[in-house]
Amino acid sequence: MCMSSPGHNREVIARRRERGLLLLAVPALLLLGAIFAWPVLRLLSMSVEGGTLAHFEKAALDGLYVSVLLDSMKIALMVMGICLVLAYPVALWLSRAGRVGLALGMFALLLPFWTSVLVRTYAWLVLLGRNGVINRTLRDWGWIEAPLPLLHNTAGVLIGMVHVLLPYMVLPIYASLLRIDPDLPRAAEGLGAPAWRSFLRITLPLSLPGVSAGCALVFVLSLGFFITPALLGGGHVVMVSMLIEQQVREFLDWPFAAALSTLLLLATLAIYALIGRLTRGARLATQ
């Protein structure tokens, strides 16, 4: 009589568990397919309506649309970089803070989520205007004589977008830092390594997965942002999402809007892959 080995039994149990978890995920996958995959496929089909690539040629060859796409990517990269510089120290502090400091930090970080993006953007209109709170305060203190141009330009758009998207960078980095064994930096310092070397050789490389996730998330959200650039840019800063909305609302040109959306999706996927590759390369270089 043939007896099964314990290792074989564990593999069988693991396979059954995986199949069970997959069955539990089927409703969610069907829901995602209905509300996400199908609209994307419908959009792709509209972009080649009539069996022609004329809309893609117009979007890829016309200097106006190419310029808007490049400007959108530049703004998204700038927002991603600013968020990374601001978010990493905050995430590092949160990962090492006590219970009270962590509670207060998380409250301050998550508080903006309780307010609509539209409301927060209008608040920045009040703060950044020529007679807004910031310019008025600086004039009252005698630091400036003329109002600073903080609105209806790239600076205002960057300020508003960074404010909205900063938590999306902090949280993945914070989660990645929490997974680092605290004994590793302590062991390095106990062996004589200074704190900065311990950070560069241990903490930073091990936190790069969170950095990669945060950068990808912020970049993807920035590239498709609409409300904040439309209001704080005042028509002087045009992003590709605004161009797509204009094609649909004013010109009713759905196929061309679909082509622009497809190009935006492809650009997003390409940059996402590049961020992941650069992060993996940086991690290997620091090891």
From TrEMBL:
- Transmembrane segment boundaries: 21-41, 75-94, 101-123, 155-177, 206-234, 254-275
Give all residue intervals belonging to the ABC transmembrane type-1 domain.
69-275
Query: Could you give one GO CC term from the UniProt record?
Result: plasma membrane
Q: Name one GO biological process term.
A: transmembrane transport
The record describes its membrane topology as: Multi-pass membrane protein
**Signal sequence coordinates:** none
- Intracellular or extracellular location(s): Cell membrane
Q: What is its main location?
A: membrane
User: Record's SUPFAM superfamilies?
Assistant: MetI-like
Q: Which UniProt keywords apply?
A: Cell membrane, Membrane, Transmembrane, Transmembrane helix, Transport
Q: Which PROSITE patterns match?
A: ABC_TM1
Which residues lie in coiled coils? none
Entries under Pfam families matching the protein: BPD_transp_1
Under PANTHER family, the record lists:
ABC TRANSPORTER PERMEASE PROTEIN, INNER MEMBRANE ABC TRANSPORTER PERMEASE PROTEIN YDCU-RELATED-RELATED
**Family in the record:** Belongs to the binding-protein-dependent transport system permease family. CysTW subfamily.
Report what the protein is called: ABC transporter permease
- UniProt source species: Teichococcus oryzae
**Lineage, top ranks:** Bacteria, Pseudomonadati, Pseudomonadota, Alphaproteobacteria, Acetobacterales
